[in-house]
Design brief:
The chain is of the alpha+beta class. It folds into two domains: 116 residues, Immunoglobulins (Immunoglobulin-like); 152 residues. Helix content is 16%, strand content 37%. The chain has five helices and 22 strands. The strands form five sheets. Strands 1, 2, 5, 6, 9, 14, 15, 16, 19, 21 and 22 form an eleven-stranded mixed beta sheet that branches. A hairpin with a 5-residue loop joins strand 1 and strand 2. The protein is elongated and about 75 Å long. It starts with a helix and ends in a 10-residue tail after the last strand.
Length: 370
């Protein structure tokens, strides 16, 4: 046998061996069932935020689901992700220096305000306790007990301390906002604030209120638009840092001009200028971390770290978070009318960004509030 013949023979032998191996592997695979789903584990999902400004505190407690059915179909079945009434109990403890000062049993309530989407709606279960006297400086510990096994799932948080705007005395006065004065746009810095103890992420919202009025029927509709600023983070959790920045007046008029469609008395609609409300929302550290890891990724690597401060007794991470939020707000600020040569009100009525939006004030119509 020549070299070519030997090579062909060896090659044929190799092919035969490979075919036989594939045949035997195939036989074995026919005898063994392959499990696509891993064994089911009871993983608890928690979403709860405490705020001492509120009396009713709601916490979302669910379980992870697994099954042979497609996930989007299972999501529409309530029993796949909700614990039954007798499957768990839950409580929140108020703790100071390791000593429990109060215990709140969580009651199961059914709400009907869940928007439609991937999961079942509009009914859904929440767990609540009522107390208008949550206090700063205490730890609050959530404990979920699974009735059948007595296994516990826990999470802890501190509250965010009260805080204020950087110049609180200004908000006690007439509160006139001068975005425009003497023919030029002005910067506004009275919405800067002091950071709060235990607060990490802050977001300013300016609400502009107005009344849309039908000049024929006289019907009035109260409306608003929210100018939401990018979130910013404090350098630490100690509180007292000056945060926020000056607001460019022209940006206000550009924002209103982009949010509203033009109207005029020719189509029987005018808009009465209303007041401005200022709100600063703040998230605690764990809530901030959860939002960070779930923000959309913009890089090539799409993998994201998982975060939860909810754990079972063995230290296994569960899903979600139990944290705190807080907010301060000042209402009733008015656009200034005090400058000669054009002011914040006249700019809204006639300026290049908003002059076609049909804004009027009390000088144009006595029924307007300002």
């Amino acid at each position: 046998m020549n070299i070519i013949g030997k090579f062909a023979f060896v090659t044929d032998m190799k092919k035969s061996i490979i075919i036989l191996l594939a045949f035997f592997v195939g036989l074995q695979s026919c005898e063994t069932e392959f499990e696509v789903n891993a064994p089911w584990k009871d993983i608890t999902s928690v979403y709860g935020l405490l705020n001492q400004n509120e009396a009713v505190h709601l916490i979302k407690i669910n379980k992870a689901f697994l099954g042979e059915t497609a996930a989007d179909e299972l999501a529409e079945i309530r029993d796949s992700s909700e614990y039954k009434p007798d499957e768990i109990t839950a409580q929140v403890e108020k703790i100071l220096n390791g000593s429990v000062k109060a215990t709140y049993a969580l009651n199961r309530v059914t709400l009907t305000n869940k928007p439609s989407g991937t999961f079942y709606s509009p009914e859904h279960v929440m767990y609540q306790f009522i107390d208008s006297n949550l206090q700063e400086g205490f730890d609050y510990k959530l404990t979920i007990t699974k009735t059948a096994t007595q296994e516990k799932v826990t999470a802890e948080t501190e509250l965010i301390s009260d805080f204020d705007f950087w110049e609180p005395n200004w908000w006690n006065g007439p509160k006139k906002v001068s975005f425009f004065c003497q023919g030029g746009y002005q910067s506004f810095n009275k919405a800067e604030w002091k950071s709060a103890v235990n607060g990490r992420r802050y977001q300013l919202t300016i609400r502009f209120n107005y009344i849309e009025k039908d000049v024929i029927s006289g019907n009035e509709t109260f409306k608003f638009v929210d100018w939401v600023f990018p979130a910013v983070q404090s350098p630490d959790l100690d509180g007292g840092d000056r945060m926020g920045s000056e607001i460019d007046g022209e940006d206000f008029y550009k924002f209103i001009g982009n949010k509203l469609t033009p109207v005029s008395s020719s189509n029987n609609v005018v808009r009465c200028i209303g007041e401005l409300d200022f709100t600063v929302d703040v998230a605690a550290e764990d809530f901030n971390t959860y939002m960070q890891v779930n923000e959309p990724t913009t890089g090539v690597v799409q993998e994201r770290a998982e975060f939860s401060n909810v754990f079972d007794e063995k230290g296994n991470q569960q899903v979600g978070f139990f944290s705190a939020r807080f907010a301060i707000n000042e209402t009733g600020a008015q656009l200034s009318k005090s400058c000669n040569g054009g002011n914040a009100v006249t700019e809204l009525k006639t300026g290049p960004h908003t002059g076609n939006l049909g804004f009027i004030n009390k000088e144009d119509d006595s029924t307007c509030p300002l």
